[in-house]
Each structure stands twice: as C-alpha cells, then as structure tokens.
Design a protein that fits this description.
single chain, alpha+beta, seven-stranded mixed barrel, 6 helices
Length: 239
C-alpha cells in the first residue's frame, strides 16, 4: 500500500514473572528488549507469557505494539523512567503512532504479517506494575492505548525492521478513537465494515460499538458469529 513510515525500535519478551498480590497470579507484564529476531506466532510471541488467560492472550491479542514516543510522553508527564517494554508491549514502534492504526489495518514487519484488532484497556496488574494505583486513570486520560494485533502470517521480526502498511480499511476508525469512545457514526462504520467483509471483531470492541449506537438511540444489532475473544480454538470460537 505504502512505503514504510515507521520502524520496530525494539522487540520485547518476558524477562521474569511479576507477582500480582490482588489476584494471586504471576503476570508476564515485565517485558524487556531482546537481541536478534523473535518469532510471531498465531497464538502469541514466542517466549511470551500471560498470567491471566481469562482476559489476556488469544488470537486477537497475540501481539501488543506501543509507540516509543507515546510512552516517553507518559514518562515525562509523570516524572518516571519507562524504558522499552515498560507497558508490557511486544513491539516498540518509532515513527508510527499505534493509536492512529485503523482497526483491520495490516502490517508487514520482518517476515510476519499482522492485523490490528483492538485496544489495550488498563487493568489492576498494570497499575501494580507501574506502582501507582491511579495509573489506570492517568493512562486512560492520556487517550493512547497502543494496539493489539493478530498474526496473519507467522514470521520473525527484530529491532530495525521497517513497518510496511499493506492495507488500511476505508472505514477509518482508529484504535485511539475506540479507546477514547466511539461516536455513533464511527460505531456504525466499524460494524458495517465488519459485517460486509465478514471480519470477526474482538468481543468487547463489538460491544462498545453496539453500546455507542444504543446511547444515540439507533438500532443496534450485530451477528454473534462475528464476535469473539479469540481465546478458543479459532475465530468465532473464543467466547
């Protein structure tokens, strides 16, 4: 579709498990950059771990990308150190705003091909990891979520790889817009595109779009077969 505009600044995997006192689980949020190529698989990044598989992981959350520039802005605003991997991201981008990624947008990074699926919502584990119980509020107020991707073509990527945008859906609804709250028109555009193209949406994203339509007093319906968490055996089987 276009010449590369951004690059992968770092690829991060779990360094060690982080104990979450509130849940008793061990989280894989402690991610740090690794040298060399890392394989991106359908069900996640090789070497990655999710402690809470009820809410994390699966086909639609196989890879999490966050822009270094956005994370650095958080660090400057809060006066804290947030190196690459601090947000639990697998891919650190530079020159590519992950929140401007259109839902359904496809990237090639290294030999892998990815498709943007949904937002990252801050949870208690994230706040515990940062060490600030109000972190979720700060993160949400800043309006940038980073983007989750599913892996269309398994392959390898490493720091320095170009981000090539292969396809950008015409509906134009971005990850950032979904995180900040969809308008009725954005919700309709997203759902119409998904239904026309047969694209399965992440369950909570579809729910948010339907809620936006209901709040606007519009008819809200969407096929259950096009909603999934992606944590089952395959698309449409993850609820």
């Amino acid at each position: 579709m276009s010449a590369p505009t951004g690059r992968i600044a770092a690829v991060c995997t779990v360094a060690q498990l982080f104990p979450v006192a509130s849940s008793g689980l061990m989280s894989g949020i402690d991610k740090r950059p690794v040298d060399g190529a890392v394989r991106l698989l359908t069900h996640g990044v090789l070497g990655d771990v999710q402690g809470d598989r009820e809410h994390h992981g699966g086909i639609f959350k196989a890879v999490y990308a966050f822009a270094r520039e956005t994370r650095q802005a958080h660090a400057e605003a809060r006066g804290i150190d947030l190196p690459d991997g601090s947000f639990g991201e697998n891919l650190v981008t530079t020159g590519q705003d992950t929140d401007e990624t259109v839902i359904g947008e496809r990237w090639r990074v290294g030999t892998a091909e990815l498709e943007a699926t949904t937002v990252r919502n801050p949870c208690g584990t994230f706040s515990a990891w940062i060490g600030d119980r109000r972190w979720g509020r700060h993160f949400t107020a800043a309006g940038g979520a980073g983007a989750y991707f599913r892996v269309l073509v398994e392959g390898e990527t490493s720091a320095g790889d170009a981000i090539e945008v292969l396809h950008r859906p015409e509906h134009g609804v971005t990850i950032g817009q979904a995180f900040r709250g969809l308008s009725a028109q954005q919700a309709r555009d997203l759902l119409d595109w998904a239904e026309a193209s047969g694209t399965v949406l992440y369950d909570s994203l579809a729910g948010s779009a339907l809620n936006a339509l209901q709040r606007a007093g519009e008819s809200a319906a969407f096929p259950e077969t096009l909603r999934s968490t992606g944590r089952g055996l395959g698309l449409g089987m993850g609820l």
